[in-house]
Amino acid sequence: MHRPAISRDTRYPIIRRSLLRRPLQTSADTAIIYHSGTVPGPANPDAKRYSAEYWGDTEAQALSVFGRMESSFEKLGVDFGDVIKMTVFLVGDPALEGRMDFSGFMRAYTQYFGTDEQPNLPARSAVQVAGLASPGMLVEVESYTRPARITASVLSPAARNLRRRLNRHCVREPARRSGSRTR
Predict the structure, then answer these.
(1) In sequence order, what are the residues at sequence separation of 6 or more whose Cβ sits closer than 8 angstroms to the Cβ of residue 6?
(2) Are 122 and 21 contacting, i.e. CB atoms less than 8 angstroms apart?
(3) DSSP β-ladder status, 24-25 and 10-11
């Protein structure tokens, strides 16, 4: 489900060679969905638990993570074009002498971001960490998503409920008069 970006976001130029977005600015009235870290599912559930074969390499794990995020996003009525910020946690790959496999991650990332079908790129940070929740996991991604303006009729019941809750909690503060003091 592709939707064009809405104009209330300011998307700064892309650094082409790295598929990295410069700052992205949203308006004060933007609702944000904070999507907790998503980890991969097993690549081969029949392999020895927590082994490299069980989880797969960085690219396989990143593809699994993005697939799981896509499933979650569908339930929320958003898609990858709505992601405005990502934090990527990569564990050093033992096959690469403990260095993170950023190239493997990027091979998966570029299937979901910066494509003709989904050209938007989030602001993104990628860091190497010592470990994740389960031994052998190499990838975890958390994201901040700004839902586009879409009609409630295309949303699932769960997404409509989330939208109602977001709207209830996203109340603007009244404008202050100039010269007024706060305590």
Answers:
(1) 148, 149
(2) yes
(3) antiparallel
State residue 173's pLDDT score.
Answer: 45
Full-model pTM: 0.71
Any residues with CB less than 8 A from the CB of 44 and at least 6 apart, and which? 53, 54, 56
How many CA atoms does the CB half-sphere of 165 hold within 13 Å? 9
Longest dimension (CA), the chain: 68
Of the candidates 178, 123, 119, the one whose C-alpha atom is nearest the C-alpha of residue 145 is: 123
Q: Would you call 178 exposed, middle or buried from its count of C-beta atoms within 10 A (0-12, 13-18, 19+)?
A: exposed
Tokens read off for 15: 């650094």
Residue type, 68: R
Asked if 122 contacts 24 with a C-beta cutoff of 8 angstroms, the reply is: yes
Report the alpha-carbon distance of residue 4 to residue 60 in Å, rounded: 29
pLDDT per position as a tens digit, 100-150: 999 999 999 999 999 999 998 999 999 999 999 999 999 999 999 988 754
For residue 127, what are the β-bridge partners? 89
Q: What sections of 7-111 are H helices per DSSP?
A: 52-55, 58-76, 102-109
When mean pLDDT is compared across 91-95, 117-121, 160-164, the lowest value belongs to 160-164
The CA-to-CA distance between both ends of the chain, in Å, stands at: 47
